[in-house]
Structure to design on (219 residues):
């Protein structure tokens, strides 16, 4: 799936804040909040433990969210947000974490294989910080591979997998080739031999891509 099509990404500017807090910074964070919200977190015994999530009330309902990180600095510290936060747009408040890691974790946690059964609810959507482009691309790649892994074998055979590889090559302007039928005997004899044991004929797809700054010059 193209990264820009992920349903967990929000385009609108208006979004409720997500505060990501570590235990060492909890006292300072509480002191920065309005007294009513700070009192609510204290009353709920919020300790900023890993994956500890509370929603802060406001005049019109849920005003913000607070997620505890503990000492976890991996993307997985943000992995449950897309399915636990109320639907709608959210934004990450800068804090003691890497924004790109947070975006990756948020988007990976939003994944759902919906070919046969839709998700019970839409994921919360994240307004992306300025430096999140690479993390979003990584998440899109993981979604694509997970879809391939989760597709049943009766729907994803050699021909369909080759189609997926060629579609990827076309999407990114790569050169590609497809080898099947009699041509496999000469180019890929082992693949051809193994493939004879199946009613679904084998195929090999290959593509080559290089960035715009690449050349044939030898340094």
């Amino acid at each position: 799936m193209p990264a820009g099509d992920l349903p967990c990404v929000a385009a609108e500017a208006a979004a409720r804040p997500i505060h990501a807090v570590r235990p060492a910074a909890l006292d300072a964070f509480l002191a920065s909040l309005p007294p009513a919200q700070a009192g609510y977190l204290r009353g709920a015994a919020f300790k900023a433990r890993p994956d500890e999530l509370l929603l802060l009330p406001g005049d019109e309902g849920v005003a913000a969210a607070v997620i505890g990180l503990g000492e976890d600095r991996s993307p997985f510290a943000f992995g449950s947000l897309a399915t636990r936060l109320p639907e709608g747009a959210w934004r990450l408040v800068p804090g003691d974490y890497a924004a790109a890691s947070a975006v990756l974790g948020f988007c990976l946690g939003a994944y759902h294989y919906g070919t046969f059964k839709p998700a019970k609810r839409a994921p919360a959507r994240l307004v992306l910080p300025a430096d999140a482009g690479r993390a979003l691309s990584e998440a899109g790649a993981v979604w694509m591979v997970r879809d391939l892994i989760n597709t049943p074998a009766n729907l994803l055979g050699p021909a369909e997998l080759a189609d997926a590889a060629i579609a990827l090559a076309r999407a990114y302007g790569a050169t590609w080739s497809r080898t099947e039928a009699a041509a496999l005997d000469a180019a890929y004899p082992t693949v051809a031999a193994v493939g004879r044991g199946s009613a679904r004929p084998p195929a090999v797809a290959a593509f080559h891509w290089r960035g715009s700054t690449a050349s044939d010059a030898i340094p």
Remarks:
- The mean pLDDT is 92.
